[in-house]
Amino acid sequence: MHLYREFPPHPALAGNVACLWTSHAVPDGAPVRTRVLPDNCVDILWQDASPLGKVAGMMSRPHHVEMRAPVLTVAVRFLPGAVRAFVDVPLSELQDGHPALADLWPRAEAEALAAGLWERERTTAQRLAVIEQALLARLRTRGPARADALARAAVLRLEASGGAVRIDTLADGLGVTRQHLATLFRERVGLNAKTFAMVCRFRRAHAALRGRDAGVDWARLAGDCGYYDQSHLIHAFRQFADATPESFLQTAP
């Protein structure tokens, strides 16, 4: 059994946080296996089995998770380009990684948050409120940065185009050089702009398959989602889902 739920963030965090979420995995005679797909977001997760927390960096490939014992997870998912308000390292250093939160925050702060989450029984709402208060406290100590606003503007344009906008066109539209844009993505997004755009296209194709079980016109889907042809679509699914589109459709929950 695997129960997953999403919750809207505190209004003061809505400009940085996509959602908070919980997951409760209870193996029933067999491990719970989950395939996590790239989504252009960074998450911080806290689990009852490893209470100090860890960061899931931007993903350029799928991540396969196997849970053999019951695990309760509470987490926050940041909007693309918004997590640098809460961590002090270039986000490219976190790509495809899962560093401990105590390596990115002052250890005492990470330990205090973990204690608030796990030292006594709490409801889900209470645990999520603990996370929100910790994030709000960090937000209050950091002034708004122009680079953060520029990063959000860049990713919003890429997302709005489904990853179709050219990188030099994106830089021109933001009034920066291509080199400056590359630095911005490395420091404040976590993937280079080209890979971010590729994930945008993949997510668009993935969304188009949701609820479908057969009868997909793959060539048309490829064109609608910004791929050159069907083979380009297949390559993207192999890269980001470890599957062809057809096999992914057969195994997707």
TrEMBL record:
It comes from the Bacteria. Keywords: DNA-binding, Transcription, Transcription regulation. GO terms for molecular function: DNA-binding transcription factor activity; sequence-specific DNA binding. InterPro entries: AraC_XylS_family_regulators, DUF6597, Homeodomain-like_sf, HTH_AraC, HTH_AraC-typ_CS. The keyword DNA-binding applies. Residues 148-251 form the HTH araC/xylS-type domain. PANTHER family: BLL1074 PROTEIN (PTHR46796:SF15), HTH-TYPE TRANSCRIPTIONAL ACTIVATOR RHAS-RELATED (PTHR46796). This is Helix-turn-helix domain-containing protein. It comes from Massilia cellulosiltytica.
